[in-house]
Amino acid sequence: MNRAERLNAVLDLLAENQRVEVDEIVQRLGVSPATARRDLDALAEQHLLSRTRGGAIAQSVAYDLPMRYKNLQRRDAKASIGRAASGLVPRGAVIGLCGGTTSTAIVDALLARADIMAASDEPGLTVVTNAINIAMQLATRPQIKTVLTGGVLHARSYELVGAYADAVLANVSLDIAFISVNGIDPLAGPTSFDEREAAVNGLMAIRAAQAVIVADASKLGRRAFASIGHPGLFSTIITDAAVTDDQRRSLEDQGYEIIVA
């Protein structure tokens, strides 16, 4: 395991319980305590964790970890959500996708559909996105028309934000917008860690005939910093089977349709 792979593995360990100890890194990765400490120090310098005596914690990180460090978290749940979201999309639809690993899972499910990927003079699907990683994922698929908004790159999430992104979204019409969130509270609604991302995601949802929140069960009942859209904007939440009866009931009481993948 090279150093880059080792740092990614340390972040995956951190993501499991929001803290990691040197002894755990030594045991799980088979490295020396000195190497484990150096790796934690290197990640702390990048502001991806906070060092503690004997380990590190993630609580002080005020933003989502970059997606290249998150792609193994709750993979099965997100894949299930992706397939459920794909099931809502008819061939030829125009959909909006923001950034996030759940959006990536939706793209994976869409690309696996024979009807969308069939050769045709018309696109099997049109995707409007402000996420450069989503656009790159679709770039080699001529069956899908990909529209990338402009904007200023938010390096922590790979999303384009700001006035240029707003200008493009204000001039498109979407059938469905799938919006990833950092938290969804029954009363506060959907929220994001970053107000710029929240603004773009809210506008994308407004431009859609149907706005759908995609969030694994770990996001339910949580609140982040910035609200996404106005009350009543989102009609549907797609989540995974880990959702509890109480979580589902509290969201349904606020008018959300819950689809459990």
Descriptive keywords:
alpha/beta; 37% helix; single chain; 10 helices; 261 residues; 7-stranded parallel β-sheet
Output the number of helix runs.
Answer: 10
The count of strands amounts to: 15
- From the N-terminal CA to the C-terminal CA, the straight-line distance is 35 Å
> What coarse outline follows from CA principal-axis ratios?
globular
Percent of residues in β-strands: 15-25%
- Name the poorly predicted regions: none
What's the alpha carbon Rg, rounded to whole Å? 19 Å
Strand order of the largest sheet: 6-5-4-9-12-14-15
Secondary-structure class: alpha/beta
Q: How would you spell out the order of helices and strands? A: HEHHEEHEHHEHEEEHEEEHEEEHE
Biggest sheet overview: 7 strands, parallel
Provide mean pLDDT, rounded.
Answer: 90
* Oligomeric state of shown chains: single chain
Helix content: 25-40%
Folded structure, characterized:
- There is one protein chain.
- Helix 2 crosses helix 3 (33-45) and helix 4 crosses helix 5 (101-111).
- This protein has helices spanning 3-17, 22-29, 33-45, 75-86, 101-111, 114-117, 132-138, 163-169, 195-206, 245-252, and strands at 19-21, 50-52, 55-57, 94-97, 125-129, 144-148, 152-154, 159-161, 174-180, 183-185, 189-192, 208-214, 226-227, 236-239, 257-260.
- The strands form four sheets. The protein has a seven-stranded parallel beta sheet with strand order 6-5-4-9-12-14-15, with helices on both faces. Strands 1-3-2 form a three-stranded antiparallel beta sheet. A three-stranded antiparallel beta sheet has the order 10-11-13, with helices on one face.
- It has 261 residues and is α/β, with parallel strands linked by helices.
- It contains ten helices and 15 strands.
- It is globular, with a radius of gyration of 19 Å.
